## 1
Amino acid sequence: MHKRFVPGHADPSFAANEEPLREPVPQPDFQQVVSARYQRRDILRGGVGLALCTMFGGLWPPRTAQASAAAGPRPASSRLGFSAVAAGSADTVVVPPGYRVQVLLPWGEPLCGEYPAFSVGNGAADQAQQMGSHHDGMHFFPLAGSSAEGLLVMNHEYAEPRFMHAAAAGLALGAVDVPLRTDGSRDPEQVLKEIYAHGVSVAHIRRDAHGVWQLVRDTRNRRITAATPMAISGPLRGDPRLRTAWSPDGTQARGTLNNCAHGVTPWGTYLACEENWRYYFVRDAGPAPVSLTRYGVEPLSAWRWHLAAGNAADDPGQFARFDASRRAESAEGDFRNEPHAFGWVVEIDPFDPQSVPVKRTHLGRFAHEGVVFAPAVEGRPLTLYSGDDARFEYIYKFVSSRPYQAASGDGSLLDEGTLYAARFSSDGSGEWLALVPGKNGLTPATGFATLADILLNTRGAADVAGATPMDRPEWGALDPATGQVYFSLTKNERRTREQASGANPRAGNAHGQIVRWREAEGDHTATTFTWELFLLAGSAGQGRDLQGQPFAQESSLSNPDGLWFDADRRLWIQTDISDEKLNTTGWSVFGNNALLAADPDTGEVRRFMVGPRGAEITGCVGTPDGATLFVNVQHPGASTSAKDFARGRLQSYWPDGGPAMPRSATLVITREDGGVVGA
Ligand code: FEO
Ligand code: CA
Ligand code: CA
Ligand code: CA
């Protein structure tokens, strides 16, 4: 028997898969100006309404929209060669005329080992050989440079238990609820299946003579899960705070969790980033180290994996490790330090199925969204950028100590260097603050005696250094021609008027923005930069483009998340309006989540694709020839209420159609004439 998890004492932000509010760091320059770009543009136009309106967090005044319309339409961007798709709320995928869509590798599809066929009744052992759930960040690694064959590697951010357990049918379960047994425990088989639905998949795929992409049976096909053994590398390797009953010397970790976006190294490995890992852990109610409290590890757990009774005799601690309470004399006797093994970037070599994934601790510990590299230059240090996706958290960059050499470059380059946090000033300038012992207030007196202290509590170090709290940094992307770095700031409805300024100009920010910056002298290792807003998301007439002009219907978007530049410098923007807001009052103008393309030179934005109901759109990446775009559809049907789930009335049955449960899946988008997608 199962009963519904009643989240009476749970943090309501579980529902949005978000981080809890923390006390924001006061900004020294709050409410001085709107962003430098918009202020300058508005002054040029001789008006102040726009600047004032932004400063006070309101919506754009209609008179500004009329003034812009009177200026006449801009010439259409030659970079965007497709007809815009209208916002919509149908339970299907909509693409422009002349395009087609194939569904590939949905959750549960047989991937490796014995290739067990998909059924909702599959057990944990089947799941370990099938595609994981909740497809997210993704990369296509061509085989021998091919655009028709490669390794598709993707993250599986999380799972939706009600859609994946046959025994959940008929229960009143919401999107984040887990089935509990009558004694309050969890079924070990269900928990193990959930553990195996997380992680990363490596899938060898090939386009056949009919243009259809298929999985190729290959020993490189692989599942990495929330239970796969991994190595700890970098400054935290062997640190006493990484010791557990499973890894008494602190050099290993078990599995990776909540892998959201990703990165691709110059030497051809894949980086999976650990985002909302804190929801999987519980701790005791006593005093806890800041390395737990600053990260939101609380005496409650959304997933309740620790409540699965009967740890297998051959696998001690598989479930107990999610309880970080102190139970033994020393750390080697319990799992108090297990949460310290998460919040990292994990390097995976997809070409070697025997390779052990490596957690690279010098890249910092936080709710990593993804990683984006600056172009690797022979003989120069390597630079990468990463955002911490929680309200009022920071954007970071890492610069390697050693120079990059193409002939010898490997993951060890990520183990030595300098981690910086970004300060965005309201005048359009910015500074990178080194998170290094003895600099920027990081001393024994502030709790940061060593580099390991700083990296284990990266958030706290950036607090002390005075980084700028942002509106939830999601993906980054790098313009291949200009070197400008773009980041999505998806939203932050808790930002107050007093906190609204600069790169985070709106109070109660419901729709988000995209910021971009240029490093001083175009040098990615520089410690200063200049920034501007690329767009302020919002509905038609309210969102603003690069020119400060109101969006038309074809450009409107909310909650930008995924970003990717193709070779022609189209910026692909993927949206993630949370499932409880999708198509509800005030949000229906946006319809379902979408994929849009933007021209970085003109700022034009045009909707390219609309996804099925309840889903987020993510993972956009193309083949080298640009003729195939892979896009992920995550959590279709998540907008289904608990009551409707119990009645068997789902918001989505995509992709299989009713009455099948909805499944996350990859889309393959091509042009009927075989041309470059988007051109
Ligand atoms: Fe998993 Fe920040 O999106
Ligand atoms: Ca995301
Ligand atoms: Ca999401
Ligand atoms: Ca998101």
## 2
Amino acid sequence: MHEINEVFRKLQVLKKRAYAPYSNFSVAAMIELKNGDVHEGVNVENASFPVGSCAEMVAINAAVASGARKGDFKAIYVTADARNPVTPCGACRQVMAEFFDNDVVIHLFNQDGTEHEQYSIDHLLPERFCL
Ligand code: THU
């Protein structure tokens, strides 16, 4: 995409669009495809709590809806309202596993960008279910 600080600034702006009235925990995720396209996601909560969606899933699903498939993904960038980088929930890891090859970089930032961690899907979800 661009320089990592610029990516983080975009994430911070995107995070303002999170719909998180129940948890007050805003999350933003951006997908970068190998063709340069970017897809955005925020968490979208619901009064019926389990109906809510995580930011990572919203971003991945937007990329898939645009036509992206396994092999097209380059990176995901995630930040949340937290002092430490928040690692994706189990369900989001399974969604990542569906579409991410192991070279897709999973970038996790804390809320002010002072902490930046990078993982692969094999690291985050070893021995996973697949068909
Ligand atoms: N959430 C995400 O969007 N991504 C994560 O990786 C962790 C959790 C959301 C779901 C819910 O809206 C809020 O954060 C609190 O769990």
